[in-house]
Amino acid sequence: MVDYEKKELLYRGKAKEMFATNVSDVVWVHYMDQVTALNGKKKVQMTDKGTTNNQISSLIFSDLTANGIPNDFIKQIDANNQLVKKVQIIPLEVVIRNFASSSFERKFAVDHLLKFEQPVKEFFYKSDKLDDPFINDSQIKALNIATQQQLDQMRDLALKINQRLRTIFAAMQIELIDFKVEFGLDQTGEIILADEISPDSCRLVDQKTKESLDKDVFRKGLGELVPVYKTVLQRLQKVEGHN
Ligand code: CDP
């Protein structure tokens, strides 16, 4: 058993900090007690937010591993920290939508939560400076961000993740409206799921009450965010047999 030591800060994002470790291809991720929206313009510190998201994302990534989705998760270390495999992040946000919401709803003037026959797949270019613009396949290739084969692989993996997430959330009496994932290249050049999957990156609605159980609570000022995230965690722990 290797004893992992936290070394220098590699990167500070909006909700997580990444540190090097004593093992070259292993990264230490610290989930911060911070929530941001509007590309970081709205930022608030919240006790237990990091812990809750770390636990949610760790459980989901473990479940995805067990279901054959390659990803960077190694293990949860403690309340706020986990270890992941080092990857080179592909600067794309892959969004899958099962129902219309937010930017899709505004762009096409359709009803809120219009149900799609097939999931909608979208790519956005990860750039704070440009406000993460929508990007299509030929634009991605023109900018040498990914090859067609890599794009097809990311879409295919995102759809598989969608299927599994919908199953998990359905067992929690939650509807998965949409979500965002990020992929990276591992040391062998394979595409694997990276980053996190949590109520920060998914839109979740309670099947019975129709209440939001995700970051929309913060974005729209609907109430306290951490208790809502804790509800999601408790339901997830039950479904994953962790309590
Ligand atoms: O919510 P917003 O209008 O900013 O964007 P969207 O394109 O409707 O978001 C689709 C899904 O991706 C939602 O579940 C968002 O929470 C998630 N997302 C994210 O996690 N990070 C972003 N930078 C943008 C969207």
Could you spell the SSE succession in H and E letters?
Answer: EEEEEHEEEEHEHHEEEHH
The major sheet is characterized as:
6 strands, antiparallel
CATH superfamily of the largest domain: ATP-grasp fold, B domain
Mean pLDDT: 97
Bound ligands: cytidine-5'-diphosphate
Number of helices: 6
CATH architecture of the largest domain: 2-Layer Sandwich
CATH domain class name of the largest domain: Alpha Beta
**How many distinct folded domains?**
2
Q: In whole angstroms, how far apart are the ends? A: 26 Å
> Which regions have little confidence, pLDDT < 50, spanning 5+ residues?
none
Radius of gyration: 17 Å
Structure, described:
One of its GO terms (biological process) is cobalamin biosynthetic process. Residues 9-235 form the SAICAR synthetase/ADE2 N-terminal domain. Its EC number is 6.3.2.6. Keywords: ATP-binding, Ligase, Nucleotide-binding, Purine biosynthesis. The chain is α+β, with helices and mostly antiparallel strands and 243 residues long. It folds into two domains: 6-87, Phosphorylase Kinase, domain 1, CATH 3.30.200.20; 89-224, ATP-grasp fold, B domain (D-amino Acid Aminotransferase, Chain A, domain 1). The protein contains six helices and 13 strands. The chain has helices spanning 49-66, 102-108, 137-142, 148-171, 216-219, 225-239; strands at residues 6-12, 16-21, 26-31, 34-37, 42-45, 73-78, 81-85, 88-89, 92-99, 115-125, 174-185, 191-194, 202-206. Strands 8, 9, 10, 11, 12 and 13 form a six-stranded antiparallel β-sheet that branches. It has a five-stranded antiparallel β-sheet with strand order 1-2-3-7-6, covered by helices on one side. Strand 2 (16-21) and strand 3 (26-31) form a beta hairpin. Helix 1 runs parallel beside helix 6. It is globular and about 50 Å long. It starts with 5 loop residues before the first strand and ends with a helix. The mean pLDDT is 97. Cytidine-5'-diphosphate binds at residues 93, 95, 101-104, 132, 178-180, 201-203, 215.
